[in-house]
Design goal:
2 domains, about 25% strand, alpha/beta, Chitinase A, domain 3, elongated, about 160 residues, Helix Hairpins, 5-stranded mixed sheet, two-stranded parallel sheet
């Protein structure tokens, strides 16, 4: 496992901590109870409930380990304390596609909290890499599978 620090917003860190707490305090006891109930049914070699519960336990523990690793490597950045005229990690950027005139808004976040449907893109994504360092009015060229897209930066904000 890598020991490199990974940038993450305060909100992203809180979401991972919330999931970790849920898995430890709710899911883990529920699965242990399901294993105990399945054991009470007798012969474990042919007990589908027991095997399903053990598999669920393995998956839950793997996710707990994954979350603990991500949280231990998090470099938490409070976006509300950032400012400036350049696009950096944590910036919320309003763009216009120069070909379609479609406007989009993206927040540049850590890779573990990215969710394009919510307008959150990973700092390592092609579009974020093209935007980093640019200012309002600049045009970012992004290579996509469908060809190169050009986005003009309309605004840059730092908000949670």
């Amino acid at each position: 496992m890598s020991v490199d620090k990974v940038p993450m917003t305060v909100e992203g860190h809180a979401e991972l901590e919330k999931e970790l707490q849920h898995r430890k305090s709710v899911e883990r006891p529920r699965i242990i109870q399901a294993i105990a109930e399945a054991r009470a049914h007798g012969d474990l070699s042919e007990n589908a409930e027991y095997h399903a519960a053990k598999e669920a336990q393995g998956l839950n523990e793997a996710r707990v380990s994954d979350l603990e690793d991500k949280l231990s490597r998090a470099d938490v950045i409070d976006v509300t304390k950032l400012s400036g005229e350049r696009v950096v990690f944590g910036a919320t950027v309003e763009l216009v596609d120069e070909d379609t005139e479609e406007e989009v808004v993206y927040k540049i976040v850590g890779e573990y909290e990215a969710d394009v449907k919510l307008g959150k893109i990973s700092v390592t994504s092609p579009i974020a890499r093209a935007l980093i360092g640019k200012t309002i009015g600049d045009v970012a060229e992004v290579r996509t599978p469908g060809g190169t897209r050009s986005y003009e930066i309309l605004s840059i904000a730092f908000k949670s």
